[in-house]
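Repro case for the chain-ordering regression, as requested:
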Amino acid sequence: MSNILEVTNLTKHFGGLTAVSSLDLHIKTGEILALIGPNGAGKSTVFNLVAGVFAPSEGVIKFAGQTIHGQKPWDLARLGLARTFQIVKPFASKTVLYNVMVGAFLRTNSTHKAREIAEDVLATLQLDHTKDMLAGNLTIADRKRLEIAKALATNPKLLLLDEVMAGLRPTEVDDMIGIIRGLRDRGVTVFVIEHIMRAVMALSDRVVVIQFGQKIAEGSPEAVTKDENVIKAYLGGEYDAA
Amino acid sequence: MSRKQLDRILLAVVALAAFGLPLVVTSPTYLQILILLFFYAYLTTAWNLVGGFAGVLPLGHSVFVGIGAYTSSILTLQYGVSPWIGMLVGGAIAAVIGVIIGLPTFRMRGAYFCLCTIAFAEGIRVMVENIDTLGPLKINGPRGLLVPLLKDPTFWDYQFMSKLPYYYIILVLLILVLAFTWFISRSKVGYYLAAGGEEPEAAAALGINVANYKLFAMALSCFLTALAGTFYAQLMLYFYPKGLMGLDLSFEIAFIALIGGRGTIAGPVIGALLLRPLNEFTRIYLSDMLPGLHLVIFGLILILVMIYLPKGLTAPLSALYDRLARKITVQGEAK
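-- result from build under test --
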């Protein structure tokens, strides 16, 4: 299996602060990779670097074999790299259908076709009953789904999901796990940042753990949660791994 | 009767009424008020492409009215070019200048963008006021330009002895620009403009180059605005920088849009229907007491609308129409 995303020696400085430091990372086509780490570890910065929001200070980012760092978010979306935002950004004054159609227009110029794509995506995410509601009036769980729906409507190869479980009730988390698995079955490679460990364990094929912008562990979810460095990072240095 | 049929009937009735109105309104004074009403509705609809759909608030659009008026008039006066041609040249120049203004300013948000458009517009007005001749072009500084009255004007001269042709020209222009806006708002460009105006970061992540779409909307809006400038020059046959390119006109366009409903198709028309007669009558009856009182009244109305109907008058009116339409269509089905 080839790698859809390859990140080598990725570094980002904000003034004197090094948010990400010499990070190597790869995602295989078709897998679900989770990026975890304590608050402030640099997870969202990694996402923003990959999605083109910031240019990296150093390092190489390759998407589907092509070097992409320095390219703008709208160019990356066209190449097939879509993302959601941790703080959801719906077009609040528009209907849910309108929101998703904005995404769908990336692959078509026809309003009719965009509506078809959007309705299909809404059905996949079990949001069809909300399609005429204003996005600003949705519940938090539905807003998170709408974030995914908008991104999915651009027909991405790789989808970056930034904490789409945060703030959800346990049953809603279960639903979301089902949805994300469904995305993978549709052929989308998924890269998630997640804090809810139950979801990480259930979803991911592989987990990368970072702290202070550096990778401290990588492997299967089971192996990573038993890793001494990871336990130290999350629970403090004095905790005994045994 | 279906909802679609009802919409069509209503549109047809409004259009017929607009075309038939001069049969009832024969006084040139009242006809002039109607002409200016449509003129402002047209300007606001053109403004709405940027100010409404793209979600920014440009406050210098009078400059583009001025560019239209000056370009076509100078071409007519000095080179004998028909204003119909000059109108298109003025539109093209306005579009280019709009893009030049937009390039640095669309990076700014909110009030900073507003202030920059005001600064650009006032800068251009002051420049025009202080230039007498620009190379071979006679601009005439603060005195403005006088379009000479022709003895036997033809259609090609864009000059008419009665008000009636002006009425129909601006009505057709208004209908065309409304249809164009309707078409845009339902197309990819309309969706992209709205998305970029509301959440630029989210729009960029969905593949939208927000700045480019705003520039495109700005170019369109400035082009259409300049066409109305030529119309104004041919209607009044005299204009000067302070009257035509000043902030009063820019603000009135924004007032009409905000009160009518930004980013809606009907908003500019509804806003103009309310504010233009108010403007004319306060000017006729109150200007002796306090000049500029109509602007104070505008301000008060704007404050009230923003507090109680922040989306403008169109939102409650269209909700009312929805309710009535549902009743009518349900009754129709029952029969």
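Ordering looks correct now. Chain B has 14 helices and four strands.
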